[in-house]
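User: Quick one: structure for sequence A, then sequence B.

Assistant: Sequence A:
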Amino acid sequence: MAETTVRGRVGEVEISLSTGKLAQLSDGAVDVRIGDTQVLVTATAKRSLRESVDFFPLTIDVEERTYAVGRIPGSFFRREGRASENAILADRLIDRPLRPNFAEGYRHDTHVVATVLAADLENPHDVIALNGASAALTLSPIPFEGPIGAIRLALIDGEWIPFPTYEQGEEAVFEIVVAGKRNAAGNVDINMVEAGASEHGYRLVQEGQQASDEATVAAGLELAKEYIATLIDLQLELLEKHGAPEPVKWQVVVD
């Protein structure tokens, strides 16, 4: 299968989505890149239904590997350790906006794995992994009612900066992660917001930077909708170029 790649710009940042080269046995696989940070996201679902299942068994795994930064474990410890705190938080960040957007009654075991292939130590991988997860599910036959776009914005000198680097995050007063999807009217509905002041936020406000008051955060949420729309369009472009998957008949559970 030929590799399919789409690219788009969110503010000053270029993001690319590719499929068709890696993990071809999964139901959907997308390689997402920003800067030199690269994450492979796969989505796979079990065809048979677990007996008497009364919940949706969705598992999200973010796999951080030392080779992503050019290091190989040596000496006595040659294996990777358990998931870090950041990986667990990224798991939850991805799970929250995805989980409510599967078809009602769908309860097949579903596994989404985001493997960090390269980390440039400048661009965080968690939010692009969320976009990659949505893209992988959109390309798959799994009944996912997406796509979903997600963006991190950092408030720096009164401006909202999309996909801030780690260095820019140090200069930010406030950060928000916003996820959303398109409604029937074509507008973006927000379905998740995660927000908080940065470590140096209080000091920066005391030094004269714009505080994260209600009006400023509301403006950031409106700006996030524009970026989310761009990310959704990018996923739909990838689906159009790659082609829709063969349909699968899934069992539906009625409580």
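Sequence B:
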Amino acid sequence: MLRADILFFDSNPIGRIVTRFSKDLIVFDLLAPIISIITIQGFFRTATVVILISIINYWMVPVVAVCAVLMYFIMTKGTKVMIEAQRRDSESRSPIHGTFAMAINGLVSLRVAEKFQFFRQDFINGLSYGTNATFCYVIANRWIGIRMDILCCLFNFCIALFLILLKGKIDKTLLVMSL
């Protein structure tokens, strides 16, 4: 950005530039460390649970394979929608920041010409569009979350079912540990 031509700043609205930098800074400073820690912790926890259950009860290996395939299918189908919804959400924030920046820069002119209502309505329209885009992103996120929760419940049901079926065949302490 420091070496960008003036044409870049003239051709892109100020709202788009501000949105781009504010969103990137928030993601890298606040969200990336937290999400990376949660992801690493979740991955290792899932791996240890799957390995432990597969060692204790080898009948769970096909169930683990089916759940992994279903999880991959859910993620590939849902991730495309989430990326598109997040892109729309980022695009919808630009007019809001642009209108706000124009109102701040031209505050004296707006007071003299009494055009607050026009910019207020433009801001509200942009806010409504942005809210709809954010809602689509949240819905896509929940679509993946609900299906993953159902998959985890199915996995736990299979573990409990095999626990009942293998009651006298495997040591009780191992069965309880796999539960």
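The first helix runs from residue 6 to 11. The radius of gyration is 26 Å.

User: Thanks, that's what I needed.
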